[in-house]
Fold each of these.
Amino acid sequence: MTWVTWRLYRYQGVLAAALFAALAVVLLITGLHLAQMWHSDLASCLKRSSCGNLSLNSPVLTTLVVGTSAVPLLPGLFWGAPMVAHELETGTNQFAWTQSITRRRWLVVRTGWLLLAAAVLAGAVSALVTWWSGPDNALYANGFEANKFDVTDIVPVGYAVFAMALGICAGALLRRTLPAVAVTLAGFVALRALIAQWLRPHYMTPVAVYYKLTGLYAPNGSYLSVSQGIVGPNGKPPVGLGGYVFNGAPVPTVCAKVVQNPAPCMAAHGYREYLTYQPASRFWAFQGIETGIFVVLAAVLLGITFWVLMRRDA
Amino acid sequence: MTAVIETSGLTKRYRRVTALSDCTISVPEGRICALVGPNGAGKTTLLRLLAGLAAPTAGGAVVLGGAPRQDPAYLAKIGFLAQEIPLYRRLTAQDHIAIGAHLNPRWDGESVRVRLGGLKIALDRPVGTLSGGQRSQVALALTLAKRPRLLLLDEPLAALDPLARRSFLAALAEAVAVKGDGEVGGGLTVLVSSHLIADIERVCDHLILLAGSRVQLCGDIETVLAEHRFLTGPRKDTTAIARAHAIVQEDTTARQTTLLVRLNGPVADPAWAVEEPNLEEIVLGYMSQDDPADGTGPEGARLSAVGEGR
């Protein structure tokens, strides 16, 4: 069955390898250039905490790297969704499932290799991107931000496994390739956005810091900002007359007479700025939690797929 | 003679429709059995149940000594060819031979090469580019390469032109004729569904007639032919005949009555002219008995057309 799986996917496998090689060449060449710049110029200026307008890379490359967040979706879309659906559509499952092999074995072997292929592809791209992003992340200390977090280290592997499981499950339930592809695409994008936006900042209780108005505060290293704003001495945001705003918060009633420059008045009345964030030290914990969530979801989807396909008539 | 297929009360219901109802049949070893009946009669359902692709709602089947199931040992003994001739269209016949070799314990890939070579069918072209007849031949050869003991063929002739039909049936007959595979033991039994009674009559020696999701006839074709007669006589009461024999179909015009009867002995009344029907006429008689619309419906029309063309 392993050989059969290889025979059915060898062209797609070669194509995927070729695309990966092309990406690797681009990232290796530019990445080596980056590393060189980093060591010669940037490391020294960063020590002085001032690198001026120095920029490490072009917008095109940045877009390409951010764009690799689509990579984990592709195997699920092109291999996962058709895996069962295309067989059911063309009836070839009747050929496959009347050879001297059980449906379970057919499913286990094919699903297993596809999951592995998706994980390896996403992992390899992620490894490249992680290496490439090293200097950039060090310079801007933004490795924890959504666009970087999503394409580096281990989370892309979790995404790829999930996308593959979603594709296979959608194909098994819908029995049509095109709707399965659409559901995989929509489901993956929606869930990724939902989790990155709403769930990820709250994997752990964020750290809160308070500092004086008009002051500046930046946590060490790359952090994930959860919320920021102004609170009064009672710990609640200011309530104002409306119309006048200072740093995104309404100017409180007590400072109504100095709305043009309310900061000294507000500070005098105990108003402070606050920031809640996930510190850089939690990066790997967050990578682990997010990967775990997607792997568990994938396991549930595969469980449904097996249950449906083993019970239902071919 | 031992029965290769033995079903009792086999029933398959989908959400609303009953595809097969209380099907009790028996097919002896070594037979080529024709499975005939109108569209929706349950032929495909029966074949899929026997192949283990579907599970029955009620009743059971014993095929080659066991229930049809998802089990390598069982599947190795069954050759199933679905109606749409499902093959991987982008793969070549050669690829399919290799796939079969990986998935079957008693695979005879050489036989496929020989068979297709004899028919001058390219082994190295994607099967999607072959003609319908060639694809059917490839699929049959692959099914036979499993060296099954029971071959289940669902409408293999439907998409074929008369020439391809003849060559397909010849290949089938030849496969059955080559008996005595020592390793397997016992001959090949075939259950083949088709609308084209005139065509399969030449190779089949057993008949199962399904109509309205029920078995109407199951038996040796010679016996079936011997048991049925057309009785033509002046228009009159048929209760005397009905008491002695089973009237399958009654056709009354102003002047005369024609009956298709299943005999229970000789016809005593000399008023009836006795005629031997052919298999197709018998089958049509049963089909129109079950549902009066069938006689004039597309199914009946198609069968008649085949009969006239012969």
Amino acid sequence: MSILQTPGSDGRFGDFGGRFVPETLVPACQELEAAFTDAWNEPAFRAELDHLLREYAGRPSMVTECHNLSEQLGIRLFLKREDLNHTGSHKINNVLGQVLLAKRMGKKRIVAETGAGQHGVASATAAALLGLECKVYMGEVDTARQELNVFRMRLLGAEVEAVTSGSRTLKDAVNEAMRDWVASVETTHYCLGSVMGPHPYPFMVRQFHRVIGSEAFDQMNDVIGTSPDYVVACVGGGSNAMGIFSGFVDTPAQLIGVEPAGGAAVHRGQPGVVHGMKSYLMQDEYGQVSEAHSISAGLDYPGVGPEHSYLASIGRAQYPTVTDDEVIAAFQLMSRAEGIIPALECAHAMAWISREAKNMQGKTVLMNLSGRGDKDVGQMMSILKDLM
Amino acid sequence: MTGRLESALRARIEGGGKCLVPYITGGYPGWADAVRACAANGADAIEIGIPFSDPVMDGPIIQQASQIALEAGATPVSILHEVRSLDVGIPLAVMCYYNTVFHAGHERFAHDLVAAGISAAIIPDLPLEEAGEWCAAADAAGIETVMLAAPTAPDDRLPRVADRARGFVYSVGLLGVTGERAELALTATTLAARVKKITKKPVLIGVGVSNAAQAVEASRVADGVIMGASVVHRMIDGGSEAVGLFVAEVRAALDGATW
């Protein structure tokens, strides 16, 4: 039996998950759960999604062996190239699935939250393709540091609202998207961007991203004849990590989810409830949710998807942290050594690999390169001033 | 056994009146005086909000009040401590988000409410399916857990919500978050009528009941109203005096109407 579970109607992964939403949203979550289950089991829906993933998003994404970094670090490093998908990250996998589902449910509009803008851009893209109205909520701190993505979303026809409440980052964008959904639930689908939120989102989003792990499992078998020793991915909410972990959770591979030191829900949090789910959560002594602080807008989140909390609680995956300085170094390392500019989010995974390589000599390491770094170049220009 | 909150509301209803439950954000500067002003001007019970960092059911006014209260250093402990000395003579309920309860621990939180003299709890992000553990602790401690009925609930769900409700059934007035609206939403009275049909418990409409006229309109169908953003708005602009005047105005309108 797989460690990956299909949660029951209570939406639990072990003690984590659930559906802690205002009463108004309970019927919508139940309806979504039924619609997803129905669609996922229907060959025609799966065929339509597979077609879009192939013809529109550009799947399968390839696996690239990094010869230069491998030699430098004394390991054998492979990248799963989600950065090469249309819109530049893994986010498109989930969004195409959810927007197809929203259409099938008769919804006319989607709302989405976004941190770095990757999920917002993907949502705006899928909405443009499939003819739905799209509104994206993005913290004001993030609209400032990711203004290119704000422009992209608007160019794609989405409305972008800068969220000025709370910490003005991803957590507050989720709050605002949920408030919108409470008011618009009859016509609107909430296109949540990670393996978080109330049931069925953590499960559904993981299923939509399983394609990453399934492809990578076959690709690694083709290249090395077995599974890698380590599978490494960055974790904010944790969707790209759940996607690639799902392909290897039942193999001997060690699963490593790298969190930012300033947003380390698993590493520094305690079980708590926010955004519809019970999961590890950074909070104070009274249960007030802490503000995360990370150089990467996409990982600037005090919580984590409940299935990660479950994998951590049973010891199946580890969740170490890296600092912003280590991330900046890794961002440059991958750019110079391999000619691949990683998203700052993925630079977290690279930073951990680079730091821990001394303990993994001769091992094979598969890293999920979940997004490309073009969006981060503006922000990095102000940090790497000596390159100017 | 009928709890203190439900008894107080029933007394008002059986006397031919309509219930008025104002909401005050705990920890906001001057909040204790605002609670006293509500009690002195005809409230039947008062809902005290425990501010939370991520209030997803609240619109801008209550978000703002919560933020100010948190910045002023309000905590669940400090608010409950102050509640002990309020001595307003009417039942008090807390409105808090579930992580405040979960983090403290169900039994401990229920016990803390009892120790502070609180009668009831309203937890807007704790729907029926997730409420079991809390309700067990609350029932054991004698805390009445108010459940929310939403306009989106299908007919087979409402009786289950009403059965689990203690104190009263909170009939959500609209699709959306707390805040003032120009008009009472049609969904407010439609839902309250549906709920009234399936329960004998008091049914109060809250969310989007913004002035005395809307309170009267809502009470044509319901047993009364909860008024949040409109009260907090006055606390922010004019302190306890403005709160007292507003509550008195709504009370007079409810008492002056013929039902």
Amino acid sequence: MDIVLVLYLLIGFMIVAAVIAIEAKDLLSSVVSVSAAGAGLSIVFLLLGAPDLAITQVVVEVLSLVILIRATVTRKDTTYDSRPNTFAVAGGLVFCALLCAVCYYAFAHMVPFGDPKMTMGMPYLMNTFERTGAANAVMGTILDFRAYDTLGEATVIFASIIGAYVLLRHVGRRSAADQESASPTRKSSATEWRTP
Amino acid sequence: MIPYVLAIVLLAVGVYAIACKRNLIKVILGVMIADYAVNLFLILMGYRTGVGGAPIRTPAMDTPEKFAAASVDPLPQALILTSIVIGLGMTALMAALAIRLHEKYGTFDVAEMKKLQG
Amino acid sequence: MRGMTLIVRTVTSLVSAFILLYGIYVVLYGHLSPGGGFPGGVILGSCLILMVLAFGKKFVDQIVSERAPYLWDCVGALAFLAIALLGYYGGQFFYNVLVPAGSHEGTAVAGNYRLFSSGIILPCNIAIGLKVAACLFGVFAVLSIFRPKNPREDQTP
């Protein structure tokens, strides 16, 4: 089958999964549906010649699913859209239609799909192996030619994870029940989990 | 051009969820969908029809010209790798915010949180 | 948080060694095959999260102190920065000091496609893998293990 046809099918699947995710009444169904869209994106990455990105997208998807389920499934109330705000919904739909129409006219002047200019990609491909010794051109790009961007990315991850720590820690001392349940010795805990 | 327009349709779905939904978790899912749409758009710009191989060099490709004639553009892939990992950090921070807001207000409803107290 | 049933605990104790080995492979061989520091670190973090989910909170509370994930997170980030500053020995920030210039013409040279063949990329991958694994495990630990029993009594007024 032609690769463009498979691409249309996969992107259509992603759009359907996204629409189901934002319209479903149950929070667990929405979260699982967004993860299905992410899995579709990983297959698109593999088809378009990017195995690095496919691995990264799959594992990041699984971890986002775990974190979101931890945040949502244990809560009781699920949906509040019983009286939708008509003006907001109408405005949202008009904006989305305008966005699609403007982009349709703008893309007529872009490079066609499948034929990129590669102004900077060609020098990277020609010089990666000789100058850095890495057979994987993407790794050579992000850790040698453009290592500053990777430093910025590590900083952004560091800052956002520290923000999550600060929000979720408990302020003050642990309660007495927590302290006495955390004090038995290691030996008793080792036997505790081995016996069924 | 059609694959680009489909990626923008996905972006429009995400932006609709951010702007018009009252449940905080649906807003977070909208941000994630918009992130996927932007990554999809970037990778569509790097594909070379008819060539389509991964940018990984094997010993069979002796000269750089052979390697460059058999692989797709590596620069969008480098940018998207950064973007995927930053999206994960964003999801973790938004989920932490949602948990704390639920503990303070008892609900995920954005309209309830915006009401003036007293 | 309680642990899971006997089947899950047995399978986890058998399988987690292989998952950790795969994660370390993806980190170390990042410059020769698809992968690298970021996906490898996420795989390692996911394996640690699997062990927490299967064995429960009480077991993990005694092995991992509350500060351990934050400490390894900072160690990884500082190691990456130290490798970057090491480049000043060669003249620029992030200069690839371990690759001698002009040594990789053609593929018949012995030493190409090997593990130690790409200079600064391998230590960078290890530092990033350590950092990402520690920070993701730390976020999960804070979400589920180190939460107080009754959150409302611990809020600042």
Amino acid sequence: MLVETIFAGLFLASIYALAAFGLAIVYGVLHVLNFAHGALLTLSAYLVFQLVTSGWPFWGAIIAVTVVAAGIGVLLELFLFRRVIDRPLSGLIISIGLIGIIDSLVAVGWGPDPRALPRMVDGSMTVFGGIIAKDRVLVVVIAIVGLGLAQLAITRAPWGKLLRATAEDREAAAMQGIPVLRVRTAAFVVGAGLAAVAGGIIGTTLPVEPGLGDNLILKAFIVIIVGGVGSTGGTLLGAAVVGLAEALSISYMPTSTAQLVPLAVLIVILLTRPQGIAGTLTERV
Amino acid sequence: MTASGRLRGRLQVEIFWPLLLAVPVVASGTLQHYQWAVNGVIWGLWALSLNIVWGYAGQLSVAQLALGGVAGYTTTLLISLHDVNLVLAVLAGVGTAVLCSLLLGLASLRLHGFYFTILSVSFAAVFVTLVTNSDTAGRTAGLLVDRGRLPVVDIGGLRWDLDSGSGGFFALALVVFMAMHALAVLLRECPAGRAMFAVRDDEALASSLGIRGATIKILSFALSAVVASVAGILQIYSFRLIVPEFFSFHEALLSLLLLVVAGLGYTYAPAIGAVVYVVLYQAAPVEGEWRVGLLGVFVILIVLFFPDGIAGGIRLLARRASSLVGRAARWSGRSTARSDYAE
Amino acid sequence: MQSEPLLELHEINRRYGGVVAVKDVTLDLRTGEICGLLGPNGAGKTTLVNLISGFTTPSSGRIRYRGKDIGRVGHTTRSRMGLVRTFQHARSFATMTVRESMSVAGTVPADHHRWFGLRGLTSIGTSDRTAHDLESLLERFGLTGWRDHPVASLPYGVKKTLGIAMAMMMEPQLLMLDEPAAGLNTSETTRLQGLVEDIRDLGVTVIVIEHNVPFILEICDRVAVMDNGELIAHAPPDEVMRDERVIGAYLGAA
């Protein structure tokens, strides 16, 4: 059913966008590929699960975990990433090391079996003749509204401009009086916070298992590159493209080929237009 | 001693010293230690493959394990489906991996840095996806590597059963590692290796000195694919199993960690990486789930204090030690030591 | 002394979109001469060197080197043919020592343009001849004391000299020096003049781009002057000094 397929595409796009947005901000400003973003997402999903099972209301849990994640983000930036500010490779390795630490915490805390967060809303609805689950609709709505607002903030709000200026050229921004270090910390806080929110929300629709972040992180890379590194708007665009492409191919192709489609999109973009759909070539390719 | 005589002497030490690492393993002789040591060697080989393409030539490729996987699956399928002789199957596996590495190499001519790395990630992901969806390759359950029994080697009265877990297979793995390590040392000393470092440092400058970046990069990919194939094939014979898990993105990140922590670009880094893997990941007296976290903590500490890795730290200490010795010798009045800044 | 010019440029043009960086430049270079290239900033000097060395391709026009049209020959091959350049900003191999850098520069002369560069790539260490050339070049350039020093921490003037020494390891027939005196103090500059003349005495033809006018006038056999992409003079130093267009270009830019 075409409607259902398109909606599936929107749903996937929403998940990818939620997972990738924070990563895009951190990469844009810090120029560090924070591999630990996925692990942070997974950990947040588990923490939300833990709180909800202990009786917390869902949105309360999300807020609490987001605050904790933001705090972790501050600590990571101040005590780790700032020390290696001029060594991007070291930053990369640190983020990979963090994955290991978080993986261990998750394994010790909750074991390898998948957990399930209760859906935000039960039941399904009929749209244009297609049957879709209500909670998935909610996810799409949250993604569109939430990330749409975030994107507006980044393009219009004054602090959004600071963010972009620092992302484009750290030294030039510093010379214009922008408190670069504080912007970095802010970017990290926002990134970590978004990872937490994404983890919590995604955890209601996908099983909460140790590999949750890993699978999403690869898709997040694809989405960011296809959309355009350095452009959060591009990330949203990339998520739409990849999500729809994936859903369409799952409908019309055997699974094995369908799984290759997002990768194929990435490879084609890399070889033909590496700066992405919306990207400007600020990075040397 | 002539300059080339000194060089030969130094190279011999460099090439053979990792054998010393085998001594404690052989001395203890337990099955578990042999298994650990084999795993260490395999991870040392993954690191060595990455060191050639990244440490020497400057191309961060996350696809090395996938290349090893290509070799592994090719070898296994040739033996189980077509009854091919072991040696031929291995050669075919290596050959296929090298061909795939040429694709990567060509891509590296178009894309640089971060973008190339992402392409290598997608290359590896394509490999894993293809294999996971292929019935012939056994999907996620993989294939058993039960054919192709390794030979028993008879040298002057000593019998080495290369299939044996009580030392024979370790001996094979060790010999293979020493060969690849020697390759890496010699590569560094020869003009091709120097050209790789030059391309890594400043490709435009290198090309203005007549060095063809394209040739050098493709060569580095091909050589690294040989090492990766060898690592992959050893791994599957060690476990008598081949599964896509072995060559996943997660595992590739581990090889990256080990190499950088040991010292990117240093010829002895892979051996150090192997030791780190054995000590922290296998031998450490902690519960299995904490292992990767322990490694993460160790890695972060090393990276913060020794940006050049353990090998870099050793070099720093060696320099300080030698300048201390130099100062002491001068002070005691009997030196021919050169000053730090001769002019 | 050969009668045929070593290098001939015939109506070379380089356009970037609407901007003409080099316009209809025609000049020739005799074997064994030191040719200076002067001109105000933006005159097109570096573009011209990029065109000659092959780092840029001309929009139109011909380049002949040793009688052969090299318009389609890439810069790496040109350097193997003896057409070598240095860079304005002291480029270097940051992780190497002086000796290792020189050794890299000596890689290619040993392997004679064959097999895409793979032949001769398997010899271990440095061949005796290359090692000898390396040491004698270091000595000639006053770099012997810096032999095992890491390149990254060299003083700027030494780095620039190293760049020239590395170019010389290529056994060039035509050497192009892009602002070799920039950033050098007076005594270093004088030393550099002697070096350039030494290089010429070794049989190498030299093109020197410089802003330092006395430097050029003192050592060059002929001087080419560019302004706004055009070649406005190409003559021995005294003639060029008196040329009205040259004086106009420099006064206009002052």
